[in-house]
Amino acid sequence: MGKSLDLFKYFSIPKFTLRIFIFFLLLFWCLGIVSNLLISNPVYAAISQPILKKVYGTVCHQIEAKTFSINGHKFFVCARCTGIYLGALIFSFVSLFYFPKMNWGLKLLYLSMLPMLLDVFLTWIGAYNYIKFLSFSTGLFFGSVVFIYILAAIENNFIDKIS
After folding, report:
1. Which among 102, 97, 103, 86 is positioned nearest to 144, based on CA atoms?
2. What phi and psi, each to the nearest 5 degrees, are found at residue 69?
3. For the whole model, what pTM was predicted?
């Protein structure tokens, strides 16, 4: 019939702009995780808490014993998920200034999953009790690495093809 319209040909998105956009999305997401600490108005807290709990409940089990709390205010995700999102946020900031070329295949991604899966397995079989800091640390490592892969995939499959 006619030629299909390829919008990516008409809208060029530089990598730096994309990285800034992703950084602010992750920053907004991470601020939401700790928004109980940031919202001091009880009316706003009463309105926002059920909504945010439901939103973050779609990505985390939110078991209260496994979440961090500060001054009695619980985070909206568990320690492991907090680590994953914080790791992604940290590396999204780093990516604004430096981003290594990806030539590792999937080895690093699998390697980053291993400590997290091992922690989950050992806790599940009862080898030791859940340790928030350990779960946070394994999540932080995994979140950092998975961010590198996701950003590389976005840039390689979308940005580089339209540039």
Report:
1. 86
2. -140, 145
3. 0.85
Sorting pLDDT into bands at 50, 70 and 90, what band is 161? low
User: What is the SS3 assignment for 6-42?
Assistant: CHHHHCCCCHHHHHHHHHHHHHHHHHHHCHHHHCCCH
**Residue 162 confidence (pLDDT):** 58
pLDDT tier for residue 13 given thresholds of 50, 70 and 90? low
Rounded alpha-carbon distances, angstroms, from residue 133 to 69, 76, 82 = 13, 16, 11
91: closest CA among 142, 132, 28, 137?
Answer: 142
Structural tokens at position 65 = 């014993």
Token readout for 18 is 């994309």
Average pLDDT over the chain, rounded to whole?
A: 88
Q: Which of 108, 110, 117 is nearest to 135 (CA)?
A: 117
The residues facing 69 across adjacent strands are: 74
